[in-house]
Inverse folding.
């Protein structure tokens, strides 16, 4: 055994050290060039593999599967045989570069795909909402972030690539392994040369696998991180994420958007996003204005990822506000706002106004309005924005916004209910006025009834508010009602006591209605429907009250 | 075209399929040995003894960072083993480093409470691993091990070039010698690629299906 490593064999080997170095250099050269090709192919096919077009996805699938499931050596042999056939005489070096580059391109494309898949899908929404095209968002927003996740398995791939250059020994590639074989074959001094080759390969691969480990530990917190050699079946998780095809609705969309923006903000100052060429692009409006940016027009300004994220965030909040204002809990409406261009454009407009107003504050708002040519999209916006100045955003305003969004629906419905009740009361009053006109002596009674109707209206509103909370609370607010009503009905104790009975009736009725609603075939009647029903009930009761007194009169007529 | 059809004789196909048999035999033997060796190394790596940990780490680093072909050459020329023995040994040495990493991941996926529970019930360390931990870890390791198997099958194609062992690749090359038209040679390449592809692709589909099942099981 020791004979294999006899000293004279080492001597013979080290007399060939220039050749060893040359072979080592060839291995490095092939590795670097093949890595370049593999990276290029990997990024292109990785991006295509999440494309919206099925044909492109199919092509990448075929490429990846063929490359991964056929031995590298066989692929190398095919290349080795195919070039002479095409009339090209290509050195084994370049065959190696191409074959290994294409082989590892397949693996790297899987790495890239899973990297893209690990980016929060809200990022696509965020990018889309600020008008980035698919390719812009892919290359400016998604990929720069995915790099963090891609790097560790990529380093592993690089190490594997270096190791795989050894197959070129079998086509006389002239690299380290080939030198070892030929040296061993020609001298039959097998021992030393393989040890030296092992050492040289180790020198190349060890730093790469350490790098992989280091990068991996640095990004370990990331949930999609793939480890070590397992990159071969990496990317399973990423299969589901096909940007542009996923469908999220309403509030979820707004939430996701916010989530994506948060991720974006965490990965601060990612690649600077160039402004999109379209003059209607929101960034033109929302960026610094030309003067502040040192005379550069909006088209020349570069945006960092953070700025882009902040703008996306603002737009996201505008959309959320839009949904809160217009939709209540109607998911269809929310979807419409989230998913249609007009919905997003509306949000953009609001933000434009706000931005224009902000500029107006800093410079001169009137100037901005008149100097429309400089900022084509903001002319009206600036003019309108002056009005929006009051709504200028502050942290407190944001908090208020959140609570306002919550109560917006209820306010609106309360107003509706109150209006209906008021109408009922007006009708009632009108009838009573007629009544009073006919029977002059009964005017105090009519007053009484009017107060009563007004009380009912308030009660109506109270019932709505109750309904908004837990059912058990329905009984509790008797005091509250009394308290509130005291402001309106002070001194009118008769009406108070009289309507007390009616209120109990109404409460029963409302409760019965709710039970019906819960038990009914509709699983969850929207809040609005319930409230409208209640408003109708209230109106009916108010009408009945009025009619009860009119009945005799009508019949008498 | 006739030249290509000539290839599809029963003799030729049987010749290639025998090569595939050799490929699968060596890969399977190598992977089984690797699982045993890899498990031992992995357990060494998590042991309390610093020496054992060091040995295991050095082993893994050496074999992870050097090419397989080198070890095939090494076992065949330097250790002077017979071809099949050299092949299996080289693959076992090389693959067990990867398997050790896989096993480490598998062991890490078993909650630590399982070790404590086994200890509290009076199991010895060996019993704990053999009866309690490994059966559970194996379940999570199956996909990675199968994909390692695919890698091994692909890598056996080196054996013809290195030591003239007649596995699928070697049989294909031998077959090529008896045909000389370009079309026929590329057809043989195609057939070889197809056989490799069918075997490896089928296995990787199994891996995917199993992974999906594992994910569902974890999800439920």
């Amino acid at each position: 055994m020791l004979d294999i490593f006899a000293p004279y064999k080492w001597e013979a080997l080290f007399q060939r050290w220039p050749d060893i170095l040359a072979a080592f250099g060839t291995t490095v050269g092939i590795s670097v060039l093949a890595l370049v090709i593999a990276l290029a192919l990997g990024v292109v096919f990785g991006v295509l593999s999440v494309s919206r077009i099925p044909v492109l996805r199919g092509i990448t699938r075929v490429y990846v599967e063929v490359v991964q499931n056929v031995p590298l050596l066989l692929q190398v042999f095919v290349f080795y045989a195919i070039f002479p056939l095409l009339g090209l005489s290509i050195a084994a070096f370049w065959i190696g570069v191409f074959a290994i580059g294409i082989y590892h391109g397949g693996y790297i494309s899987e790495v890239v795909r899973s990297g893209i898949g690990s980016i929060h899908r809200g990022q696509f929404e965020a990018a889309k909402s600020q008008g980035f095209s698919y390719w812009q968002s892919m290359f400016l927003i998604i990929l720069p972030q995915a790099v963090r996740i891609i790097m560790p398995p990529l380093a592993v791939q690089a190490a594997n690539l270096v190791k795989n250059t050894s197959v070129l020994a079998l086509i006389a590639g002239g690299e380290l392994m080939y030198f070892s074989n030929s040296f061993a074959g020609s001298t039959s001094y097998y021992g030393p040369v393989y040890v030296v080759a092992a050492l040289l390969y180790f020198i190349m691969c060890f730093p790469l696998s350490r790098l992989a480990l280091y990068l991996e530990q640095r990004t370990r917190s990331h949930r999609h991180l793939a480890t070590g050699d397992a990159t071969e079946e990496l990317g399973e998780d990423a299969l589901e994420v096909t940007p542009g095809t996923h469908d999220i609705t309403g509030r979820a969309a707004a939430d996701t958007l916010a989530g994506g923006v948060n991720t974006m903000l965490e990965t601060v100052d990612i690649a600077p996003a160039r402004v999109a060429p379209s003059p209607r692009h929101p960034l033109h409006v929302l960026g610094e204005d030309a003067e502040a940016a040192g005379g550069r027009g909006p088209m020349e300004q570069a945006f960092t990822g953070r700025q882009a994220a902040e703008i996306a965030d603002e737009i996201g909040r505008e959309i959320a506000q839009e949904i809160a204002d217009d939709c209540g809990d109607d998911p269809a409406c929310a979807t419409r706002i989230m998913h249609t261009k007009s919905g997003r454009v509306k949000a953009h407009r609001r933000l434009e106004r706000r931005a224009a107003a902000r500029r107006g504050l800093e410079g001169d708002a009137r100037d901005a309005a008149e100097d429309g040519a400089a900022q084509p999209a903001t002319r009206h916006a600036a003019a309108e924005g002056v009005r929006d100045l009051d709504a200028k955003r502050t942290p407190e305003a944001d908090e208020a916004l959140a609570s306002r969004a919550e109560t917006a629906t209820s306010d609106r419905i309360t107003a509706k209910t109150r209006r209906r009740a008021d109408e009922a009361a007006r009708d009632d009053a009108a009838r009573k006025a007629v009544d009073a006109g006919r029977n002059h002596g009964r005017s105090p009674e009519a007053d009484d009834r009017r107060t009563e109707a007004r009380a009912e209206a308030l009660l109506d509103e109270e019932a709505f508010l109750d309904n908004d909370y837990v059912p058990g609370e329905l009984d509790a607010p008797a005091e509250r009602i009394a308290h509130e009503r005291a402001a309106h009905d002070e001194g009118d104790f008769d009406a108070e006591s009289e309507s007390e009975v009616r209120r109990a009736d109404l409460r029963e009725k409302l409760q019965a209605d709710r039970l019906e609603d819960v038990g009914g075939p509709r699983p969850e009647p929207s809040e609005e429907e319930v409230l409208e029903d209640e408003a109708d009930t209230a109106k009916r009761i108010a009408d009945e009250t009025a009619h009860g007194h009119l009945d005799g009169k009508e019949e008498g007529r | 075209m006739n030249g290509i059809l000539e290839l599809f004789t029963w003799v030729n196909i049987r010749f290639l399929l025998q090569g595939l048999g050799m490929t699968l035999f060596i890969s399977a033997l190598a992977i089984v040995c690797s699982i045993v060796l890899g498990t031992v190394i992995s357990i060494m790596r998590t042991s309390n003894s610093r020496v054992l940990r060091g040995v295991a780490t050095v082993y893994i680093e050496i074999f992870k960072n050097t090419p397989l072909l080198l070890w095939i050459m090494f076992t065949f020329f330097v250790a002077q083993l017979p071809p099949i023995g050299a092949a299996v040994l080289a693959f076992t040495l090389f693959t067990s480093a990867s398997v050790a990493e896989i096993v480490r991941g598998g062991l890490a996926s078993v909650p630590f409470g399982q070790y404590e529970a086994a200890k509290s019930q009076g199991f010895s360390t060996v019993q704990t691993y053999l009866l309690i931990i490994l059966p559970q870890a194996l379940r999570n390791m199956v996909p990675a091990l199968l994909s390692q198997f695919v890698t091994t099958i692909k890598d056996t194609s080196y054996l013809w070039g290195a030591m003239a062992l007649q596995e699928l690749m070697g049989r294909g090359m031998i077959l090529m010698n008896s045909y000389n038209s370009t079309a026929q040679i590329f057809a043989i390449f195609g057939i070889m690629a197809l056989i490799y592809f069918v075997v490896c692709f089928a296995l990787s589909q199994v891996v995917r299906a199993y992974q999906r099942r594992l994910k569902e099981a974890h999800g439920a």
About this structure: The longest helix of chain B spans residues 182-219. Residues 2-219 of chain B form a domain with the MetI-like fold fold (CATH 1.10.3720.10). Chain B touches chain A through 45 residues (CB under 8 Å). The two ends of chain B are 55 Å apart (CA to CA).
